[in-house]
Amino acid sequence: MTTTTHPSAPTPGSSQSATSGPVAPTSGAACRLRPVPLEAVSITGGVWAARRQINGDVGVPAGRERLESAGNLDNLRIAAGTTSGTARGPVFMDSDVYKWLEAAAWEYARHPSEELLAAQREVTAIVAAAQQPDGYLDSVVQLRGGERYGELGWSHEHYCAGHLFQAAVAQVRCTGERGLLEVAVRLADHLVRTFGENGRHDLDGHPEVETALVELYRETGNRDYLELARFFVDARGQERIVAYGREPAYFSDRVPVREQTTVEGHAVRAVYLGAGAADVAIELGDDELLRVLERQFAAMEATKTYITGGLGSRWDGEAFGDPYELPPDQAYAESCAAIGGIYWAWRMLLATGDPRYADAAERKLYNGFLAGVSLSGEEFFYVNSLHIRADALADESRSPVHGRRPWFDVACCPPNIMRTLASLPGYLATTDTDGVQLHQYAPGTVTAAVPGGEVRFSVETEYPWEGLVRVRVEQAPDSEWTLSMRVPGWAEGARLQVDGQEQSAPAGAYAQVTRSWRAGDTVELSLPMTVRFVAADERVDAVRGCVAIERGPIVFAVEHVDQADGLVVDDLRVDPSGPTTAEYRADLLDGVTVVTARGRADNHTTAEWPYRPDGDGPAAYGRDVDVTAIPYFSWANRGVGPMRVWLPRT
Amino acid sequence: MTTTTHPSAPTPGSSQSATSGPVAPTSGAACRLRPVPLEAVSITGGVWAARRQINGDVGVPAGRERLESAGNLDNLRIAAGTTSGTARGPVFMDSDVYKWLEAAAWEYARHPSEELLAAQREVTAIVAAAQQPDGYLDSVVQLRGGERYGELGWSHEHYCAGHLFQAAVAQVRCTGERGLLEVAVRLADHLVRTFGENGRHDLDGHPEVETALVELYRETGNRDYLELARFFVDARGQERIVAYGREPAYFSDRVPVREQTTVEGHAVRAVYLGAGAADVAIELGDDELLRVLERQFAAMEATKTYITGGLGSRWDGEAFGDPYELPPDQAYAESCAAIGGIYWAWRMLLATGDPRYADAAERKLYNGFLAGVSLSGEEFFYVNSLHIRADALADESRSPVHGRRPWFDVACCPPNIMRTLASLPGYLATTDTDGVQLHQYAPGTVTAAVPGGEVRFSVETEYPWEGLVRVRVEQAPDSEWTLSMRVPGWAEGARLQVDGQEQSAPAGAYAQVTRSWRAGDTVELSLPMTVRFVAADERVDAVRGCVAIERGPIVFAVEHVDQADGLVVDDLRVDPSGPTTAEYRADLLDGVTVVTARGRADNHTTAEWPYRPDGDGPAAYGRDVDVTAIPYFSWANRGVGPMRVWLPRT
Known about the structure:
Radius of gyration of chain A: 24 Å
Helix content of chain A: 25-40%
Oligomer: homodimer
Number of domains of chain A: 3
Largest sheet of chain A: 10 strands, antiparallel
Shape of chain A: globular
Distance between the termini of chain A: 51 Å
Structural class of chain A: alpha+beta
Low-confidence stretches of chain A: 1-10, 13-18
Strand content of chain A: 15-25%
CATH architecture of the largest domain in chain A: Alpha/alpha barrel
């Protein structure tokens, strides 16, 4: 096992006053890379700055109101005895409160407003008041009078606890306030007393507490939390969880984690478990577990991931399908699954230093994740379809068809999106003993510890719309260190320019420059921003004969509203050998690059039995047309109409 | 409106002693064709005789035991006070009892055993004892103490009543016994007193009572039942039914029947409603309603039907997808939906005389329906996938993957399959004022009323394995009448031979011979039994670039077990321009024709990110192979392994 320690890594229990990111491995952790703390990274422009500002200005305040109107806060108040009533909503209502608190904490790091701090204090007090004397806390169980942990396969008690722990860690790291952490520690201690090798061997049907317990360990230094997380990871896979009409596979409980070779069942559960197991592997230096997780992640990428990075192809059970079962029209691709995939990928990146995990995170961030929130910042997709047909708009029971919504009865996605946007700077850069690694590109600044001192550099870029990323060193110690910049797997032909000298930058690796840096030094990475027509492995049956359009890290979609009058999206084909244009349009969709390609519009006039002798179908006649594509993430922001990511080839 | 009456058509209330089929329009009904009564058609050989015998010998007796072990009968006994306990199972438990009773009645017509009659009497007595003094009957509501019809959106009280009515009609038609009919009439009268224009305007969330009320009207002559059926049909579509987390579309309640242009929502609900509405249209001579139903059925056929005739592509909500949303791997295609589709098609055929409805029924019968039952007759598919991948076998939570099962918690399909097999002779032939129409071909005899008297003829055929269908007149009156034989839509090039004279027989129409017939006259219809490679309309995205294999009315499937050692079904391609063979194998799967085609086996060795620049994928290399296909209906009878109906073209 390769263990790399680093002078700036926190010791457990030491970070009580320093702020940090959402994932802060201890100094003894077995990770190749260590996150640059969230507060040492600023994002000052581009897509992410805009989305993060709207998240803070609109999304987080709106979320606070939803917690009131949906009854989440009342559930806690009733549990505290400060108001009366009965529990509302599903069993995991508390988790939305905690995810909102977590989002508010990270947002406070971006923009420390007194109003937001006051709101956090108020909600924290509501949570604290609901906690029972022995530390137990779950308002729905308390109100509905069920036995504590009596139906843990479905009760989500650990899941809610995990979100509380993450919120508490975020709050102390961003505001320095310890109120929520005290609640979290009391509940975590209750879990430690109740579960584990010498306690109950039950498991929550929904993983989440594992990663949260590890982060609480990192914050507090209490190793019991790490041990309990390890216990929960290793206790899984005994086929014990059957609940809510679902079999063990749904709960990631069919196969022990260390024997599993892929991901299966409920997608969010599976990837949250992956993230938690990775945290355990990192903190325990458990190389065997890490290898297992690499294998699982690789299988997920190769066989169960949409081109958008979306995860989970089945509405039934919100689940991963079989390998290559990835129909665009029936895609589920829950926003929370993309988020969990990003969290898992980040931990794998820290553990291994392998850029493919940063590639995976980037794809999910710009596509499967970012599509989950409207440009207005207050409406959300739960399900992310990749193909809406013209006739799909009639039936309102199919959620993505009628667009994003402000909230849901099962409201996991909105606050999950909020906390992810708010904590984004924590996922951009890392350090190791040699220097700094830049994984994701956004305009801003990074301050990081390197051998010999602290470096500060700016990042200037129009990425993801343009391929040039310029790093300008603003301050550096008098020592040699390495700057590593990720060259995405799609970026064949990338070039790196250092002080006017060009060198190649292999795709799917880090372009590295080792030297003594001085203020004013610049490095320019040029990523090729050609329009790419992408085809799927032929085992992805549902998109055989189709291509998707990519440019940079962006997956494009063809939306009805952008096509010439009279063109029907489902009649379009695209010519991958034809010319394309890519134009940045500041006026469109808060600023996006629009791609046009050549294609054909077929005439589909028949409405008869659709299966005919091969070669015997009506001749496809039609006309040459331009096909206009926008970033997938921006679809459904001008009303909702037909859309497709995959188009048949001409 | 064209109304054809016929001397042999029953007058309402007149059929109390005559046996008849499952659908017996009254003499005043507006139908072009009238069913030849079930007892006037015998099936003496071939696929259907074999399946029907096993259904009677094994399926029906096993079903009786399941009603005991699953608690259906106990629910009724507890309601009657003859035993104690609490209700088991879902709300529609009674309906399984009624469907079994209906199956037993039709089976008694095939094979009148005293044992089966005794079993019917016993179960009938259990049902009768549970009925309340005012006629109300629903054991689950009675036992769980809910308000009668208080949650009709989900309670299935009318649905269960409908199955009771159909069972009662079957029983009196096949056994002459009136015990169940008396129960049915009491309950139907209770419904008439409670619902309708002048009563409650509520609707059951699951259509079924509409078609059943019409049949009860046909049997009893009580026009109130017909009027109530019409009321239920026309009251639908007000968007009032929201239950069980489902929206009105799920319940076919989004759009009024007369305004609907397609089918949507829960597939079984939609097609049962179509069947009931067709019955209403027939009995009321409601031409406007009939036109609406023709349009809906045509849209279903053109855009929402699998090649197997299977209906409903979404697991979520067991629902129809959008038009052309027909992924083979995520197909739901519930057995009950195929059955409902057959029932609807039959009524549309009676109403219109259009052979396309008989084509649709045939496709469903031999494929989507027949796949629902094992060759052993006692295991059933609820869901009928069209593509099982090699890796699908791990997760046991996906029902079709692990094969047919003896029964289900929601056990609608098994007794539905039993009653359909048992009543099959009722769906083969019709008469009109000109003569006899033969719609489906099976060896046996038909006796039917024609102008001037009664005709009796035999049918000799090896169909669906061979294309020759020979009709031999055994007895005929001394008058001129027309024999019509359906030429399926796929049968281009069919020929008809009468007394050695050949004439053409256009596909998708009836080949007709009008003459004075004498005993010994023969007609031979020759249907071309070439192997057909069939492609889908390109809007069926999920099978673009693929072909399916058909021969005669049979859709074929490529099942793992039949391929040469080492061949993986998901690696196979098929060459539609290559040679094929078709061989009947008496030793295989109770006797089936096996098709072989030429193809390629690709090597899929990579397991990496599956989306690559168009044209940039690893070269497909592989080898020429034979691809072996069996009838889809017979798959999963030798264990369960990978299977696919659609294969990529070479």
